Here is the input.
Amino acid sequence: MLGPFEIARRLRRIGLVGIGERNARYVLMHNPRKFYPRVDDKLITKQLAMAAGLPVPELYAVIREEHEIGELHEKLKGRDQFVVKPAHGSGGDGILVVTGRRGDKYRRSNGHLMDRAEFGHHLSNGLSGLFSLGGQPDHLLVEYCVQFDPVFDQVSYKGVPDIRIIVFLGYPVMAMIRLPTRLSDGKANLHQGAIGVGIDIPTGTTRRGVWGSEIIQDHPDTEHTIVGLGIPRWDELLEMASRCYELSGMGYVGVDFVLDRAKGPLILELNARPGLAIQIANRSGLGHRLARIESLQKDGTLSTDPAERVAFARSHFSTT
Here is the structure.
């Protein structure tokens, strides 16, 4: 049985980054506090992305006051599918996915019908801050409901998979795709039971997956392999992620995408404190990759060209 010092040495050897190191060395040092609203408020993120010419899900409405909830039904007339999300939500809390209607009722992604009173109650809770960071009053975004790319048909349960790319000083350093499961109730949230699958930066191919503490190769619900999937339009995803460095002003940021079957890659949100489970999904630590970028910074050779930064990442950050 390994002792604590041997375990610590092994973790250092593979470059595993813990929460304390992430916060002190990367988040606090490279993410200016004044820029946090750019990533913590999904509406601001969307507006910045649109101004930079980066694709995002279409915005149908913004709800800021209680009286606007009643008016929303008329605004959404003719739209059978849409998503409601709190602007300051985290971890998927408060997101309401509507996939159809039956009369005056809205059908949720899990198949349950929600009448107008329930719908209004959910939105009212969102405005009050029930789902927001710190419980502060919030505003709500109503936007296009993503139709995920058919490449994921056999490896996702009900919900929409998303792709996270961690970007450090403009360089994509690690990536994964989060696949919804029955346990996660169709949500792409690892803490609720979704699968994290590492993606090889140079090729955009999935390597291996983690489900809770279990290393897996097949989706537990569909029983199809999650290894060896080629992520469509990988070049675009990497360059878009790299451009989010200038867009956000954040040196250490997680960029979340979805792949729509008609619209292609869309930026969902940015995260100034991206989780560390991506290391387990890739079976590789972030430390060595981040140190490689820090060495460029020390040498004064950081690139200002997103295409050059992507080329560097693809040359140096393979997941074997």
Summary: The chain has a mean pLDDT of 92. The longest strand covers residues 171-179. The radius of gyration is 20 Å.
